[in-house]
């Protein structure tokens, strides 16, 4: 049975924040020799507050699969970042939805400044977490109960995984593949994408 993955999308979302994990989890195969005739073990869906067209950063238009009311039960929730998080982290409708889904999912994850939404919902209280390098100080200043990690590319604490900025969501998604189906499948997925596999969980840039 496929794992159902919901990616929260919103206006002014950073494109690679959601497209990176979407690509990784969509192209994963358990048997590379049967890639063409098999499906991914992940069923990835886009979820938004409404089913209206979403305008990303750069004005890409995307259509969500579900809105908050019709969203099915999820196994994994991914909360990406982008400029749109600046107001959503104070939107009670978003915080209520994320908090509700956090109770049912196996994995709660964020990419980039998506972690600020999780923190605002108090889901990162007492949790080791990270975010885009430009928002690390903000996370420390505004969310005193979050244990901010600055040197990791992504941070796993229990069933919560947060990643650094933008492209780090790809590595986080490959780790999700590894967590569920092992390193061989994860490496094969990265190779299919012609993407360099993260050998050491260390932030790729110097701050």
From TrEMBL:
InterPro entries reported in the protein's UniProt record: Class_I_gatase-like, DJ-1/PfpI, INH-QAR
Enzyme Commission numbers on file = 4.2.1.103
Q: Which UniProt keywords apply?
A: Lyase
Name any Gene Ontology BP term: regulation of DNA-templated transcription
GO MF assignments: cyclohexyl-isocyanide hydratase activity
Sequence ranges assigned to domain DJ-1/PfpI in this UniProt record: 5-178
Main EC class the enzyme belongs to? lyase
One Pfam family here: DJ-1_PfpI
The answer on whether this UniProt entry bears the keyword Lyase reads: yes
PANTHER family per UniProt:
ARAC-FAMILY TRANSCRIPTIONAL REGULATOR (PTHR43130), DJ-1_PFPI DOMAIN-CONTAINING PROTEIN (PTHR43130:SF14)
Q: Would you tell me the protein name for this molecule?
A: Isonitrile hydratase
What organism does this protein naturally occur in? bioreactor metagenome
């Amino acid at each position: 049975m496929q794992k159902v993955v919901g990616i929260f999308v919103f206006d002014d979302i950073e494109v690679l924040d959601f497209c990176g994990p979407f690509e990784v989890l969509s192209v994963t195969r358990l048997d590379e020799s049967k890639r063409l005739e098999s499906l991914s073990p992940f069923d990835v869906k886009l979820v938004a507050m409404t089913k209206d067209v979403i305008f990303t950063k750069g004005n890409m238009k995307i259509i969500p699969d579900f809105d908050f009311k019709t969203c099915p039960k999820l196994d994994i929730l991914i909360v990406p970042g982008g400029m749109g998080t600046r107001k959503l982290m104070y939107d009670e409708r978003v915080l209520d939805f994320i908090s509700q889904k956090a109770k049912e999912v196996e994995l709660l994850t964020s990419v980039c400044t998506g972690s600020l939404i999780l923190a605002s919902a108090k889901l990162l209280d007492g949790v080791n977490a990270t975010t885009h390098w430009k928002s690390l100080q903000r996370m420390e200043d505004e969310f005193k109960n979050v244990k901010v990690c600055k040197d990791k590319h992504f941070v796993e604490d229990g069933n919560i995984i947060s990643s650094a900025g933008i492209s780090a969501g790809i590595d986080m998604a490959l780790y999700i593949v590894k967590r569920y189906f092992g390193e061989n499948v994860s490496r094969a997925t990265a190779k299919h994408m012609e993407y360099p596999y993260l050998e050491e969980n260390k932030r790729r840039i110097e701050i």
